[in-house]
Amino acid sequence: MDVLFIHPNFPGQFRGLASALCAKDDMRVYTLRDASRNQSLPDLPGATHWTYAPPAESSQEVHSYLRATDVGIRRGQTVARLLLEKKHQGFEPDVIYVHPAWGDALYLKDIFPDAYVIGLFEYFYQTRGADVGFDPEFPLEFDDIFRVRTMNTLQLLSLEACDLGLCATAWQRSRYPKAYQDRLQVLHEGIDTVGLAPKDGAVLEVDGASYTVGEHTIVSDPAVLRAGDEVLTYVSRSLEPYRGIHTFMRALPLILRERPNCHVLILGKDEPTYGPPPKTGAHWRDVLLAELIPRVDEAMLARVHFMGSVPYTQYLKVLAVSRVHVYLTYPFVLSWSMLEAMSMGCLVVGSRTAPVEEVIRHGENGLLVDFKDAGELAKTVNAALADPLPYAPLGRKARQDIIQRYDFATQVLPEHLALLARQKRASETLAFLGDLPEGL
Fold this sequence. Notes:
By secondary structure, the chain is of the alpha/beta class. It has helices spanning about 15-20, 65-90, 110, 140-150, 155-160, 170-175, 180, 245-260, 285-290, 300, 310-320, 335-345, 355, 375-385, 390-405, 410-435; strands spanning about 1-5, 30-35, 50, 95-100, 115-120, 165, 185, 205, 210-215, 215-220, 225, 230-240, 265-270, 305-310, 325, 350, 365-370.
Protein backbone atom coordinates (compact mmCIF):
# COMPACT_ATOMS: atom_id res chain seq x y z
CA MET A 1 0.00 0.00 0.00
CA ASP A 2 1.30 3.44 -0.96
CA VAL A 3 0.59 6.11 1.67
CA LEU A 4 1.26 9.81 1.09
CA PHE A 5 1.50 12.29 3.98
CA ILE A 6 0.98 15.98 3.17
CA HIS A 7 1.63 18.70 5.73
CA PRO A 8 3.34 22.08 5.17
CA ASN A 9 5.24 21.48 8.40
CA PHE A 10 5.71 17.73 7.99
CA PRO A 11 5.93 15.68 10.14
CA GLY A 12 3.59 17.79 12.29
CA GLN A 13 0.90 15.56 13.76
CA PHE A 14 1.94 12.67 11.47
CA ARG A 15 5.33 11.97 13.08
CA GLY A 16 4.33 8.82 14.96
CA LEU A 17 2.11 7.36 12.27
CA ALA A 18 4.56 7.91 9.41
CA SER A 19 7.33 6.30 11.45
CA ALA A 20 5.15 3.30 12.34
CA LEU A 21 4.10 2.72 8.72
CA CYS A 22 7.70 2.92 7.51
CA ALA A 23 8.44 -0.06 9.74
CA LYS A 24 5.88 -2.23 7.93
CA ASP A 25 6.96 -4.29 4.90
CA ASP A 26 3.67 -3.86 3.07
CA MET A 27 3.71 -0.04 3.28
CA ARG A 28 5.52 2.49 1.09
CA VAL A 29 5.57 5.97 2.61
CA TYR A 30 5.83 9.28 0.75
CA THR A 31 5.86 12.75 2.29
CA LEU A 32 5.24 16.23 0.91
CA ARG A 33 5.96 19.50 2.71
CA ASP A 34 6.59 23.20 2.14
CA ALA A 35 10.27 23.68 1.26
CA SER A 36 10.45 26.95 3.18
CA ARG A 37 9.50 25.42 6.54
CA ASN A 38 12.56 24.47 8.57
CA GLN A 39 11.14 21.34 10.11
CA SER A 40 13.60 18.58 11.02
CA LEU A 41 12.54 15.32 9.45
CA PRO A 42 12.28 12.24 11.68
CA ASP A 43 14.19 9.11 10.81
CA LEU A 44 11.89 7.40 8.31
CA PRO A 45 13.81 4.53 6.69
CA GLY A 46 12.62 3.89 3.15
CA ALA A 47 10.38 6.96 2.91
CA THR A 48 10.43 9.19 -0.17
CA HIS A 49 10.41 12.92 0.65
CA TRP A 50 9.16 15.65 -1.68
CA THR A 51 8.87 19.40 -1.20
CA TYR A 52 6.99 22.19 -2.94
CA ALA A 53 7.81 25.86 -3.26
CA PRO A 54 5.87 28.11 -0.89
CA PRO A 55 2.96 29.99 -2.49
CA ALA A 56 3.16 33.71 -3.13
CA GLU A 57 1.69 36.05 -0.57
CA SER A 58 -1.82 37.37 -1.17
CA SER A 59 -2.20 40.72 -2.88
CA GLN A 60 -3.34 43.61 -0.73
CA GLU A 61 -6.09 44.10 -3.29
CA VAL A 62 -7.75 40.90 -2.09
CA HIS A 63 -10.35 41.49 0.63
CA SER A 64 -8.75 41.13 4.06
CA TYR A 65 -11.17 38.34 5.01
CA LEU A 66 -10.01 36.29 2.02
CA ARG A 67 -6.23 36.70 2.09
CA ALA A 68 -5.64 33.39 3.88
CA THR A 69 -8.05 31.71 1.47
CA ASP A 70 -6.22 33.25 -1.49
CA VAL A 71 -2.88 31.90 -0.25
CA GLY A 72 -4.52 28.52 0.46
CA ILE A 73 -5.76 28.25 -3.11
CA ARG A 74 -2.28 29.10 -4.38
CA ARG A 75 -0.87 26.41 -2.12
CA GLY A 76 -3.44 23.90 -3.29
CA GLN A 77 -2.53 24.63 -6.90
CA THR A 78 1.18 24.20 -6.15
CA VAL A 79 0.53 20.84 -4.49
CA ALA A 80 -1.66 19.74 -7.40
CA ARG A 81 0.95 20.66 -10.03
CA LEU A 82 3.70 18.73 -8.26
CA LEU A 83 1.52 15.67 -7.70
CA LEU A 84 0.35 15.75 -11.32
CA GLU A 85 4.00 15.41 -12.34
CA LYS A 86 4.36 12.43 -9.99
CA LYS A 87 1.19 10.91 -11.43
CA HIS A 88 2.63 11.13 -14.95
CA GLN A 89 5.65 9.25 -13.60
CA GLY A 90 3.38 6.45 -12.39
CA PHE A 91 2.69 7.43 -8.79
CA GLU A 92 -0.82 6.47 -7.56
CA PRO A 93 -1.24 6.56 -3.77
CA ASP A 94 -3.80 4.31 -2.15
CA VAL A 95 -4.26 6.58 0.88
CA ILE A 96 -3.42 10.24 1.46
CA TYR A 97 -3.18 11.73 4.96
CA VAL A 98 -3.33 15.52 4.80
CA HIS A 99 -3.63 18.51 7.10
CA PRO A 100 -6.06 20.70 5.14
CA ALA A 101 -5.90 23.95 7.11
CA TRP A 102 -3.50 25.63 4.69
CA GLY A 103 -5.13 24.49 1.44
CA ASP A 104 -3.03 21.41 0.64
CA ALA A 105 -6.09 19.14 0.35
CA LEU A 106 -8.17 21.21 -2.06
CA TYR A 107 -7.42 19.44 -5.35
CA LEU A 108 -6.14 16.02 -4.31
CA LYS A 109 -9.24 14.14 -5.49
CA ASP A 110 -8.95 15.82 -8.88
CA ILE A 111 -5.46 14.37 -9.30
CA PHE A 112 -6.06 11.02 -7.57
CA PRO A 113 -9.82 10.29 -7.71
CA ASP A 114 -9.32 6.70 -6.49
CA ALA A 115 -7.17 7.59 -3.47
CA TYR A 116 -8.74 7.53 -0.02
CA VAL A 117 -8.11 10.99 1.41
CA ILE A 118 -8.01 11.36 5.20
CA GLY A 119 -7.95 14.92 6.51
CA LEU A 120 -6.81 16.02 9.95
CA PHE A 121 -9.40 18.59 11.00
CA GLU A 122 -8.36 20.57 14.05
CA TYR A 123 -10.78 23.40 14.56
CA PHE A 124 -13.84 25.05 13.01
CA TYR A 125 -14.19 28.68 14.02
CA GLN A 126 -17.51 29.99 15.29
CA THR A 127 -18.49 33.40 16.57
CA ARG A 128 -20.17 32.07 19.72
CA GLY A 129 -19.61 29.35 22.27
CA ALA A 130 -15.86 28.87 21.98
CA ASP A 131 -12.68 30.94 21.71
CA VAL A 132 -14.07 33.99 19.92
CA GLY A 133 -15.47 36.39 22.50
CA PHE A 134 -14.62 34.05 25.38
CA ASP A 135 -12.30 36.40 27.24
CA PRO A 136 -14.06 39.58 28.45
CA GLU A 137 -10.70 41.31 28.58
CA PHE A 138 -10.64 41.16 24.77
CA PRO A 139 -14.26 41.76 23.68
CA LEU A 140 -15.54 40.68 20.30
CA GLU A 141 -15.67 43.47 17.75
CA PHE A 142 -18.44 43.64 15.18
CA ASP A 143 -16.04 43.10 12.29
CA ASP A 144 -14.80 39.87 13.92
CA ILE A 145 -18.11 38.14 13.28
CA PHE A 146 -17.75 38.32 9.50
CA ARG A 147 -14.00 37.70 9.51
CA VAL A 148 -14.34 34.56 11.63
CA ARG A 149 -17.17 33.15 9.54
CA THR A 150 -15.12 33.63 6.38
CA MET A 151 -12.04 32.00 7.95
CA ASN A 152 -13.69 28.58 7.50
CA THR A 153 -13.76 28.79 3.69
CA LEU A 154 -10.74 26.51 3.17
CA GLN A 155 -12.03 24.02 5.72
CA LEU A 156 -15.46 23.78 4.13
CA LEU A 157 -13.91 23.16 0.73
CA SER A 158 -11.56 20.61 2.26
CA LEU A 159 -14.39 18.77 4.02
CA GLU A 160 -15.86 18.14 0.58
CA ALA A 161 -12.45 17.09 -0.74
CA CYS A 162 -11.76 14.42 1.91
CA ASP A 163 -13.31 10.97 2.30
CA LEU A 164 -12.80 10.95 6.07
CA GLY A 165 -11.83 13.51 8.67
CA LEU A 166 -10.06 12.94 11.98
CA CYS A 167 -10.51 15.18 15.03
CA ALA A 168 -8.28 14.94 18.09
CA THR A 169 -11.10 15.34 20.63
CA ALA A 170 -14.85 14.94 20.72
CA TRP A 171 -15.26 18.61 21.57
CA GLN A 172 -13.25 19.69 18.54
CA ARG A 173 -15.42 17.44 16.37
CA SER A 174 -18.55 19.02 17.88
CA ARG A 175 -17.52 22.44 16.58
CA TYR A 176 -17.96 21.34 12.95
CA PRO A 177 -21.30 21.71 11.15
CA LYS A 178 -23.64 18.84 11.94
CA ALA A 179 -23.91 18.03 8.25
CA TYR A 180 -20.27 16.88 8.28
CA GLN A 181 -19.93 15.28 11.69
CA ASP A 182 -20.81 11.78 10.45
CA ARG A 183 -17.68 11.96 8.28
CA LEU A 184 -15.47 12.98 11.21
CA GLN A 185 -13.92 10.38 13.51
CA VAL A 186 -12.45 11.18 16.92
CA LEU A 187 -8.88 9.92 16.94
CA HIS A 188 -6.08 11.73 18.72
CA GLU A 189 -2.57 11.83 17.22
CA GLY A 190 -1.37 9.79 20.18
CA ILE A 191 1.14 10.09 23.01
CA ASP A 192 4.39 8.14 23.41
CA THR A 193 3.71 7.10 26.98
CA VAL A 194 6.89 4.99 27.12
CA GLY A 195 9.14 7.92 26.36
CA LEU A 196 6.92 10.30 28.32
CA ALA A 197 7.05 8.63 31.71
CA PRO A 198 7.97 9.84 35.23
CA LYS A 199 11.71 10.11 35.68
CA ASP A 200 12.87 9.69 39.27
CA GLY A 201 16.08 11.52 39.96
CA ALA A 202 15.62 13.99 37.09
CA VAL A 203 17.84 17.06 37.26
CA LEU A 204 17.43 20.32 35.34
CA GLU A 205 20.02 23.07 35.12
CA VAL A 206 18.52 26.49 34.43
CA ASP A 207 20.76 29.29 33.23
CA GLY A 208 20.53 32.75 34.69
CA ALA A 209 19.19 35.51 32.45
CA SER A 210 18.48 39.21 32.40
CA TYR A 211 16.12 41.30 30.32
CA THR A 212 14.79 44.80 30.34
CA VAL A 213 11.17 45.84 30.69
CA GLY A 214 10.74 49.58 30.45
CA GLU A 215 13.10 51.11 32.98
CA HIS A 216 13.53 47.86 34.91
CA THR A 217 16.19 45.21 34.48
CA ILE A 218 15.00 41.80 35.62
CA VAL A 219 17.53 39.16 36.64
CA SER A 220 16.70 35.49 37.10
CA ASP A 221 19.22 33.42 39.02
CA PRO A 222 20.73 30.17 37.71
CA ALA A 223 19.33 27.12 39.44
CA VAL A 224 19.76 23.37 39.68
CA LEU A 225 16.33 21.81 40.12
CA ARG A 226 15.52 18.20 40.93
CA ALA A 227 12.42 16.03 40.91
CA GLY A 228 10.76 16.64 44.28
CA ASP A 229 11.77 20.30 44.48
CA GLU A 230 9.15 23.01 44.65
CA VAL A 231 8.84 23.70 40.90
CA LEU A 232 5.87 25.26 39.11
CA THR A 233 5.78 24.86 35.32
CA TYR A 234 3.88 26.50 32.49
CA VAL A 235 4.28 25.44 28.83
CA SER A 236 2.82 26.91 25.66
CA ARG A 237 3.95 27.31 22.08
CA SER A 238 3.51 31.06 22.56
CA LEU A 239 3.04 33.26 25.61
CA GLU A 240 -0.38 34.69 24.77
CA PRO A 241 -3.87 35.07 26.27
CA TYR A 242 -5.25 32.15 24.20
CA ARG A 243 -3.22 29.90 26.51
CA GLY A 244 -3.88 31.95 29.64
CA ILE A 245 -0.50 33.59 30.15
CA HIS A 246 -2.21 36.69 31.54
CA THR A 247 -4.06 34.68 34.20
CA PHE A 248 -0.92 32.74 35.08
CA MET A 249 1.26 35.83 35.43
CA ARG A 250 -1.34 37.57 37.59
CA ALA A 251 -1.35 34.57 39.94
CA LEU A 252 2.41 34.74 40.47
CA PRO A 253 2.62 37.46 43.15
CA LEU A 254 0.60 35.39 45.64
CA ILE A 255 2.45 32.21 44.69
CA LEU A 256 5.91 33.76 44.95
CA ARG A 257 5.07 35.47 48.23
CA GLU A 258 3.62 32.39 49.96
CA ARG A 259 6.07 29.87 48.49
CA PRO A 260 9.55 31.38 48.99
CA ASN A 261 11.30 28.23 47.72
CA CYS A 262 9.26 27.87 44.56
CA HIS A 263 10.92 28.25 41.16
CA VAL A 264 8.68 29.05 38.19
CA LEU A 265 9.62 27.70 34.74
CA ILE A 266 7.83 29.33 31.79
CA LEU A 267 8.29 27.86 28.30
CA GLY A 268 7.07 29.50 25.10
CA LYS A 269 8.12 31.96 22.45
CA ASP A 270 7.16 35.63 22.60
CA GLU A 271 5.54 35.88 19.16
CA PRO A 272 1.82 34.97 19.31
CA THR A 273 0.56 31.93 17.41
CA TYR A 274 -3.22 32.18 17.64
CA GLY A 275 -4.19 35.63 18.88
CA PRO A 276 -3.01 39.17 18.15
CA PRO A 277 -0.08 40.89 19.84
CA PRO A 278 -0.75 43.60 22.43
CA LYS A 279 -1.91 46.91 21.00
CA THR A 280 1.17 48.53 22.55
CA GLY A 281 3.37 46.62 20.11
CA ALA A 282 5.34 44.87 22.85
CA HIS A 283 5.20 41.16 23.61
CA TRP A 284 2.64 39.83 26.08
CA ARG A 285 5.52 38.81 28.36
CA ASP A 286 6.69 42.43 28.64
CA VAL A 287 3.16 43.79 29.09
CA LEU A 288 2.42 41.34 31.88
CA LEU A 289 5.80 41.76 33.53
CA ALA A 290 5.12 45.50 33.68
CA GLU A 291 1.99 44.61 35.68
CA LEU A 292 3.90 42.15 37.85
CA ILE A 293 6.94 44.25 38.80
CA PRO A 294 5.16 46.61 41.24
CA ARG A 295 3.70 43.62 43.10
CA VAL A 296 6.88 41.62 43.74
CA ASP A 297 10.46 42.23 44.79
CA GLU A 298 13.71 41.36 43.03
CA ALA A 299 14.24 38.17 45.03
CA MET A 300 10.85 36.87 43.92
CA LEU A 301 11.52 37.71 40.27
CA ALA A 302 14.87 35.93 40.47
CA ARG A 303 12.92 32.66 40.85
CA VAL A 304 10.93 33.20 37.63
CA HIS A 305 12.65 31.72 34.58
CA PHE A 306 11.47 32.53 31.06
CA MET A 307 13.09 29.75 29.05
CA GLY A 308 11.63 30.53 25.61
CA SER A 309 11.42 27.63 23.13
CA VAL A 310 13.71 24.81 24.21
CA PRO A 311 14.87 21.50 22.65
CA TYR A 312 12.53 18.58 23.24
CA THR A 313 14.96 16.86 25.62
CA GLN A 314 15.07 20.00 27.76
CA TYR A 315 11.27 20.25 27.68
CA LEU A 316 11.03 16.70 29.05
CA LYS A 317 13.38 17.61 31.90
CA VAL A 318 11.14 20.57 32.75
CA LEU A 319 8.14 18.26 33.07
CA ALA A 320 10.19 15.69 34.96
CA VAL A 321 11.05 18.14 37.76
CA SER A 322 7.59 19.76 37.90
CA ARG A 323 5.66 19.54 41.14
CA VAL A 324 2.67 21.41 39.71
CA HIS A 325 2.04 22.03 36.02
CA VAL A 326 -0.43 24.71 34.89
CA TYR A 327 -2.32 24.41 31.60
CA LEU A 328 -4.80 27.13 30.68
CA THR A 329 -6.62 27.55 27.40
CA TYR A 330 -9.57 29.24 25.78
CA PRO A 331 -12.17 26.76 24.45
CA PHE A 332 -9.89 25.85 21.54
CA VAL A 333 -7.58 23.14 20.23
CA LEU A 334 -6.23 21.02 23.10
CA SER A 335 -2.43 21.18 23.34
CA TRP A 336 -0.26 18.08 23.28
CA SER A 337 1.67 19.53 26.22
CA MET A 338 -1.18 18.93 28.64
CA LEU A 339 -1.47 15.26 27.71
CA GLU A 340 2.31 14.89 27.74
CA ALA A 341 2.51 16.40 31.23
CA MET A 342 -0.16 13.95 32.40
CA SER A 343 1.76 11.07 30.80
CA MET A 344 4.80 12.19 32.81
CA GLY A 345 2.71 11.88 35.97
CA CYS A 346 2.52 15.61 36.62
CA LEU A 347 -0.18 17.12 38.77
CA VAL A 348 -1.92 19.33 36.21
CA VAL A 349 -3.95 22.35 37.24
CA GLY A 350 -6.06 23.07 34.17
CA SER A 351 -8.68 25.57 33.14
CA ARG A 352 -12.32 24.64 33.50
CA THR A 353 -12.87 24.90 29.72
CA ALA A 354 -14.45 22.34 27.41
CA PRO A 355 -11.38 20.76 25.78
CA VAL A 356 -9.63 20.37 29.14
CA GLU A 357 -12.72 18.97 30.87
CA GLU A 358 -12.87 16.22 28.25
CA VAL A 359 -9.65 14.82 29.75
CA ILE A 360 -9.26 16.13 33.31
CA ARG A 361 -11.79 15.24 36.01
CA HIS A 362 -11.38 17.53 39.00
CA GLY A 363 -10.04 15.73 42.03
CA GLU A 364 -9.53 12.43 40.14
CA ASN A 365 -6.71 12.93 37.64
CA GLY A 366 -6.01 16.65 38.03
CA LEU A 367 -7.43 19.92 39.26
CA LEU A 368 -9.60 22.48 37.47
CA VAL A 369 -9.90 26.23 38.04
CA ASP A 370 -11.75 29.11 36.43
CA PHE A 371 -9.68 30.29 33.44
CA LYS A 372 -10.23 33.93 34.36
CA ASP A 373 -9.65 33.70 38.12
CA ALA A 374 -5.98 34.32 38.98
CA GLY A 375 -6.80 34.19 42.70
CA GLU A 376 -8.31 30.71 42.48
CA LEU A 377 -5.36 29.55 40.40
CA ALA A 378 -2.86 30.87 42.97
CA LYS A 379 -4.75 29.32 45.89
CA THR A 380 -4.96 25.93 44.17
CA VAL A 381 -1.29 25.95 43.14
CA ASN A 382 -0.11 26.98 46.60
CA ALA A 383 -2.03 24.17 48.28
CA ALA A 384 -0.50 21.59 45.95
CA LEU A 385 3.00 23.02 46.27
CA ALA A 386 2.79 23.10 50.07
CA ASP A 387 1.66 19.50 50.57
CA PRO A 388 2.25 17.34 47.49
CA LEU A 389 1.60 13.94 49.10
CA PRO A 390 -2.24 14.06 49.04
CA TYR A 391 -2.12 15.04 45.36
CA ALA A 392 0.26 12.29 44.24
CA PRO A 393 -2.58 9.85 43.36
CA LEU A 394 -3.94 12.41 40.89
CA GLY A 395 -0.69 12.38 38.92
CA ARG A 396 -0.62 8.56 38.88
CA LYS A 397 -4.24 8.44 37.72
CA ALA A 398 -3.47 11.04 35.04
CA ARG A 399 -0.74 8.84 33.58
CA GLN A 400 -2.98 5.77 33.73
CA ASP A 401 -5.74 7.60 31.84
CA ILE A 402 -3.37 8.80 29.12
CA ILE A 403 -2.10 5.25 28.62
CA GLN A 404 -5.63 3.88 28.38
CA ARG A 405 -7.02 6.57 26.07
CA TYR A 406 -4.19 8.21 24.14
CA ASP A 407 -1.18 5.88 23.98
CA PHE A 408 0.02 5.82 20.39
CA ALA A 409 1.27 2.24 20.22
CA THR A 410 -1.68 0.51 21.91
CA GLN A 411 -4.64 2.82 21.22
CA VAL A 412 -4.02 5.08 18.24
CA LEU A 413 -1.91 3.02 15.84
CA PRO A 414 -4.29 0.00 15.88
CA GLU A 415 -7.13 2.35 14.86
CA HIS A 416 -5.13 3.60 11.88
CA LEU A 417 -4.09 0.10 10.84
CA ALA A 418 -7.71 -1.07 11.00
CA LEU A 419 -8.76 1.92 8.92
CA LEU A 420 -6.09 1.18 6.30
CA ALA A 421 -7.00 -2.51 6.26
CA ARG A 422 -10.66 -1.67 5.60
CA GLN A 423 -9.65 0.63 2.77
CA LYS A 424 -7.38 -2.03 1.27
CA ARG A 425 -10.20 -4.59 1.33
CA ALA A 426 -12.58 -2.09 -0.26
CA SER A 427 -10.08 -1.33 -3.03
CA GLU A 428 -9.47 -5.01 -3.71
CA THR A 429 -13.22 -5.63 -3.89
CA LEU A 430 -13.69 -2.82 -6.41
CA ALA A 431 -10.80 -4.12 -8.49
CA PHE A 432 -12.31 -7.64 -8.45
CA LEU A 433 -15.72 -6.37 -9.50
CA GLY A 434 -14.11 -4.40 -12.30
CA ASP A 435 -12.61 -7.63 -13.69
CA LEU A 436 -15.94 -9.48 -13.86
CA PRO A 437 -17.45 -10.13 -17.31
CA GLU A 438 -20.09 -7.64 -18.42
CA GLY A 439 -23.66 -8.67 -17.65
CA LEU A 440 -22.74 -11.03 -14.85
